Amino acid sequence: MNRIINFEAQHDRSRSSAWLVILALLLVVGLYRPAVSAQEAVVLVGSGSSVPAPLYTKWAEEYNKRNSAMQMRYLPIGTSEGIKQISHGSGDFGAGEIPLSAKERAEGNLTELPAIIIGIVPIYNLPGIHEDLKFSGEVLAEIYLGNIKTWNAPQIAKLNPNVSLPDTPIKVVYRPGGKGSNYIFSEFLSKSDAKFRSQIGISPSPKWPVGSPAERSADMADKVKTEPGSIGYVEAQYAIKNHVQHGLVLNPAGHFVKASSESLTAACRAVEAPTWDKFGVSLINAPGAESFPITSFTWVYVKDGGHDQRRAAALNDFMNWVYSNGQQVGVDQGYSELPPQLLANVKTKISSLR
Prior knowledge:
alpha/beta; 2 domains; nine-stranded mixed sheet; three-stranded mixed sheet; 14 helices; elongated
C-alpha cells in the first residue's frame, strides 16, 4: 500500500536514520497518515530552522487551501539538522540561514535558494528604559564574550548618552548549537570585533563563554521578555510580535539603523545589485546608509533530482507558489520580500531543477 511519505527500500543507513527522525517528528505532531489509495494527496515535508517557522506555518496554512492533492508541512528542528535531512534525501526541502558549503552542494546535490529577507535583532529587558537602545557590533561582541557585565558599562553608555542606564548585571541568553540565528549573529560579531573572531568565530554552534541557552527562537523571546536585565537575539518578527524591546545597530556607514522592511531590502539591494544572482551570498554589514547590518536571507535547500514524478511536480508547484503569492504572504506577516530582479532569477533557477 502506498504511503503519503514514500520510504524507499535502501541500504544506506544514514539515510534511513534521517528518515526515522522525520517520521518520529511527524508522528508526534500528528502529521503522518497512511495513504488509502494511489490517488492520496502528496504531503511535502520541509524541516530546518525555527527562525522562519512562523512564516512557514503561514505558508502552509495558505498553500494548503489551494489544492487538497498537494499539501505542505514544516518541522522546525534547526538549520544544521535540516541540511542534514535533505542531504540524506529525507523530506522534500530544508530551510535555514547557513549558506551551503561547496562539499554540501556537491555531495548532496543541493541548491540553496533565497526564500525571503530577515533581520536578527538584539533584544533586551530593562524595566524603566523606554528608549530604543543603540548597539554596535563591537559592544555586542564584548557582551557575548563576557567582558561587558553591566548595563551602565561605559561602552554602552557612550552609545546611549541620553539614557539613564541602570547598574544591572547583564544576563546573556544564547541559542544552542546548530541554529541559523547563531550563524548570522556570530558572523556579524566576527566581522565587527577581532577578539570575537579569534576566540569564537563564525559558526552555527558557537562555544559561548557566558550565558544560558534558549532552545527555540520563541523560547529566546519569552526568556528575555520575562527576565529583567537579559539580552538575546532573534529574528525581528519574534521581537515585534512578542513586544520585546529591540535595539538599533550601527552599520558600516556609521548610522544606527532599526530593522525594518526598508532597511533589510536596502541591505539586499546593496549586495545583490546589479547582477541579482548571488543566491548564497552574505548580507551582513552591507554597504549603504540605510542598510540594517544584521540582515540575511533565509534559504530553501532543495535537491536537484531524486524525486519521483508526483513529488517533483508537487515540489515545483509549491516553490513557484512561494515565489509568487508566498512573497505577499510574507510581506503581510512583516517580512521583506525579495526584490523583483532577484525574484525573476530565482524563478529561472527553479525551472532548471529536475
